[in-house]
Amino acid sequence: MNETKPTSPTTAYNPPEIDRTTIRTDLSRNENLPVIEAYTLAHFELNARRISQYPDAKQLIQAIAVRHQVDPAQVVVTAGGDDAIDRTIRVCLAFNELAKRTILTHHPTFEMFDVYANASAGKLAGPVWMDGEFPIEQLFDQMTDDVAILALVTPNNPTGSSIPFAVLKSAVQRAEQQGLPVLVDLAYVEFAEIDPTEWLLTHSRAVIIRSFSKAFGLAGLRLGYALTSDRELAARIQNIAGPFPTSQPSLDLGLQALRDTERMQASVIDSNVRRNWLAEVLRSKGANVLPSDANFVLAHYSPAEPLYEKLLRRGIAVRIFPQRPLLKNCLRITV
């Protein structure tokens, strides 16, 4: 079952417009404070060489490779996790000799999948998964001959729910049996109890998406990466876009963030405590709050729009989804 049908190749990311000059507290975009030490940020050197020469990602690639214990040839640094998703979808559709156009996923899912599918003349399909058990059998039933790639998001955005590890393994293994590549978006995985990256790297047709935007709090740098054990696939993901997707300052600060992951882990622990507190407070006020393993919660109110507008009047922005039927009367609130 599709959440929405693709409309045109110009489908765009289109959240509700907000006058941000009136916003004191923005809880609408799942942002986090940077985990890089304030002193390091204050003394970050931005000199002529850094901004006049083309960037070199080798040091960051090496640091990511060490973090995940892989060869640097398995790492592709991108302009945020979004860029990694876009490239992977384009590669899987462009190099598909049978011209398969379907991206099999779950609904709701990260909304950029629909944007990138449309841009590559593809379409989304898949079962609904709002809460409760993941619909693995329905997913298997829809692994038909026109599917080009299986795309999973865990923890899921916008619900915050994680796909249980055993279920994720079953989905990846079934896709592998049918010759399907698998994209697993782990942008929020640092907030979850289980990180399946190491296991996924044992499967040659899996592409793992990671981000510096969430747990590291570096959304403004537009920095992410893709991991895969298939070096040829990594090279295709690398080469389908321009050679310099990220700036040198972004690469330098990303490298700095990886040198102090203890600060990131402390930030995640604090965020999770606050998330659980927020969920309990919202439930005590009558909201239906879905379980979350991310840095946000999804709360169902009926109706949601009056509360959304009331919060705006008080200078607080949360996310509402007027164009997504499955998310009617839902508010996504960042921790």
The Rg value, from CA coordinates, equals: 20 Å
Instruction: Indicate the structural class.
Output: alpha/beta
Instruction: State the separation between the terminal residues, measured CA to CA.
Output: 31 Å
Q: Ranges with pLDDT <50 over ≥5 residues?
A: 1-10
Q: How confident is the prediction overall: mean pLDDT?
A: 93
The topology string of helices and strands comes to: EHHHEHEHEHEHEHEEHHHEEHEEE
Strand order of the largest sheet: 2-8-7-6-5-3-4
Shape, per Cα inertia axes: globular
**Beta content:** 5-15%
Q: How would you concisely characterize the structure shown here?
A:
This protein has 335 residues and is α/β, with parallel strands linked by helices. It is 36% helix and 15% strand.
Protein traits:
335 residues; alpha/beta; 12 helices; disordered N terminus; seven-stranded mixed beta sheet; single chain; four-stranded antiparallel beta sheet
Topology:
Elements: E1 25-26, H1 38-42, H2 48-52, H3 58-68, E2 75-78, H4 80-94, E3 102-104, H5 112-119, E4 123-125, H6 136-141, E5 147-153, H7 165-177, E6 182-185, H8 197-200, E7 206-211, E8 224-227, H9 231-239, H10 248-258, H11 261-284, E9 288-289, E10 296-300, H12 305-313, E11 316-317, E12 319-320, E13 330-334
Parallel strand pairs: 1-11, 3-4, 3-5, 5-6, 6-7
Antiparallel strand pairs: 2-8, 7-8, 9-10, 10-13, 12-13
Helix pairs in contact: 3-10, 4-5, 4-9
